[in-house]
């Protein structure tokens, strides 16, 4: 088992990574203040892991809430199911919510915890590779709005994160690739050595080699934890974690949430960001090629969906949360391992990238 | 003009109290970071003050959002109107929300600010006496759930509060009394000298004597600010601000939100808390009489609605946010000016108080 800490003063919390953690009550108990525990999961994960977690938590008063699966349900009416269950069961302020599932379950459970009676404790048990390396670290919670992804939410930190790598055994290959997209991102924005390590081990990582995947998750979480600790509320450097996401969110919104997996959209979005960084003369062509190559080898798309046009991107990117006073900012690369957030680029270069899409 | 500060480290903010503040851009401008301002108000307050505020803020890109009036609309679908307007107008993270109205507008605008793009700035301009002395100080925001009041929300502090006492001139007498309920509360829980001052000036306060009402608001806000600074997230002492509210919330929920004004329900609830404190042998009978007398002289009800039975109270109070691990806690008085939050009372005494209702 590996352990690291996200350092946020009185909101600091541990991340445990390893096999079989779902059975270890000693990792959970210190983070549960009262007797009431509400386990939020979805109808894909519930048949796989809910009973096991309930056995681990047998000493508590348990309330399971099973949501419909998928990004399409990451909205207010699904969130309301959590509130209804908590209120019907009379869960009070000392209750602890546990998110058991992927990023959608984590984001909604975290936001429910942030809002229920103005804030209760929660614990993340992410079961997908993507949520293990991304949404479970950093406290971003929320739901989608028809006009944009994650537009309604809160910064709200969990008390602890448990990453049981055994849960990856049931994950479809497509979702493994989606998780690798975010892992690749950490190398690109912050750690060229990690990028080289990923180039070396990509085939084994796709096969979920236990030691290698644990290492990849731990290094990803460590990079994210470091960035989040430096800038919890995304006033500055934290925005680099969004490499490929402005393009990617536009792809997800255009296709309808859930059609493309988040990681797939980020994969194609990172390719666009890499190419734009190259066209601006910032990123050497060889680095750009290496980045795109690794994304392809992870089994990810390297171009946006056919039929999505430049104007679709422009319209959907205009509501991005990184837009400030009307100006679009993008995360771009100076070199492998170094990202910047900037509005200081020639519009013509973005136009050129967008002119190439849809074909 | 009086000014005081709510001390909450990097979330500290000023409260300005006086006549004609709505026209003073120099009190607002320092707290607006960007160019976009969204003024949220309701269809009662909009015809009275919206245009004036828009004139004051003429230099900004303004987005007015006019909600239906009343506690009955303090729900998700009304909140959604704010999000829809912000997204349609492409307001970004640097937008500032301004709440222009009573407690419902303030609670919903604050919660919208807490959640929009995971948190944007907001300013409170409370226009009712109740919101001026209560909800505009302390950062409690939220909406109601059919199963309980303010069950969904956040602790989220405004950047500034502007209390323009001129706005009280258009307030119905019934709402003046409702505001006085919370003012009386501050004396009861924390300041017997203030209680005596209120006894002396109650007739003039009901007539909104400018100097006296400014003084009453300032003293109320100062007491609340002091309690909130000591316990922002209501881990302990802050709960004393809920004197009469556990009973009061049950009354509101039973009657349907908006039938009784919040301050009226709190008035009747404080009478129940005073009587219970006397029955427990904690509060001298003379102090209890003085408290009830002042509540009556403020024009407030001193008994719950006819037809509301003991079991109605029991059921509705069981979901109170002060319930911890299934145990009901109440705010009670040791003497005039000293409140305690406790679960340590004989159940029979509560039963006795409840046995007296509904007649």
UniProtKB/TrEMBL annotation, chains A, B:
<keyword id="KW-0456">Lyase</keyword>
<feature type="binding site">
    <location>
        <position position="262"/>
    </location>
    <ligand>
        <name>Zn(2+)</name>
    </ligand>
</feature>
<feature type="binding site">
    <location>
        <begin position="127"/>
        <end position="128"/>
    </location>
    <ligand>
        <name>NAD(+)</name>
    </ligand>
</feature>
<keyword id="KW-0170">Cobalt</keyword>
<dbReference type="Pfam" id="PF01761">
    <property type="entry name" value="DHQ_synthase"/>
</dbReference>
<feature type="domain" description="3-dehydroquinate synthase N-terminal">
    <location>
        <begin position="65"/>
        <end position="177"/>
    </location>
</feature>
<keyword id="KW-0862">Zinc</keyword>
<keyword id="KW-0963">Cytoplasm</keyword>
<keyword id="KW-0547">Nucleotide-binding</keyword>
<dbReference type="InterPro" id="IPR056179">
    <property type="entry name" value="DHQS_C"/>
</dbReference>
<comment type="similarity">
    <text>Belongs to the sugar phosphate cyclases superfamily. Dehydroquinate synthase family.</text>
</comment>
<feature type="binding site">
    <location>
        <position position="245"/>
    </location>
    <ligand>
        <name>Zn(2+)</name>
    </ligand>
</feature>
<dbReference type="InterPro" id="IPR050071">
    <property type="entry name" value="Dehydroquinate_synthase"/>
</dbReference>
<feature type="binding site">
    <location>
        <position position="140"/>
    </location>
    <ligand>
        <name>NAD(+)</name>
    </ligand>
</feature>
<keyword id="KW-0028">Amino-acid biosynthesis</keyword>
<dbReference type="InterPro" id="IPR030960">
    <property type="entry name" value="DHQS/DOIS_N"/>
</dbReference>
<dbReference type="Pfam" id="PF24621">
    <property type="entry name" value="DHQS_C"/>
</dbReference>
<feature type="binding site">
    <location>
        <position position="149"/>
    </location>
    <ligand>
        <name>NAD(+)</name>
    </ligand>
</feature>
<keyword id="KW-0479">Metal-binding</keyword>
<keyword id="KW-0520">NAD</keyword>
<comment type="pathway">
    <text>Metabolic intermediate biosynthesis; chorismate biosynthesis; chorismate from D-erythrose 4-phosphate and phosphoenolpyruvate: step 2/7.</text>
</comment>
<feature type="domain" description="3-dehydroquinate synthase C-terminal">
    <location>
        <begin position="179"/>
        <end position="323"/>
    </location>
</feature>
<comment type="function">
    <text>Catalyzes the conversion of 3-deoxy-D-arabino-heptulosonate 7-phosphate (DAHP) to dehydroquinate (DHQ).</text>
</comment>
<feature type="binding site">
    <location>
        <position position="182"/>
    </location>
    <ligand>
        <name>Zn(2+)</name>
    </ligand>
</feature>
<dbReference type="InterPro" id="IPR016037">
    <property type="entry name" value="DHQ_synth_AroB"/>
</dbReference>
<keyword id="KW-0057">Aromatic amino acid biosynthesis</keyword>
<protein>
    <recommendedName>
        <fullName>3-dehydroquinate synthase</fullName>
        <ecNumber>4.2.3.4</ecNumber>
    </recommendedName>
</protein>
<dbReference type="InterPro" id="IPR030963">
    <property type="entry name" value="DHQ_synth_fam"/>
</dbReference>
<feature type="binding site">
    <location>
        <begin position="103"/>
        <end position="107"/>
    </location>
    <ligand>
        <name>NAD(+)</name>
    </ligand>
</feature>
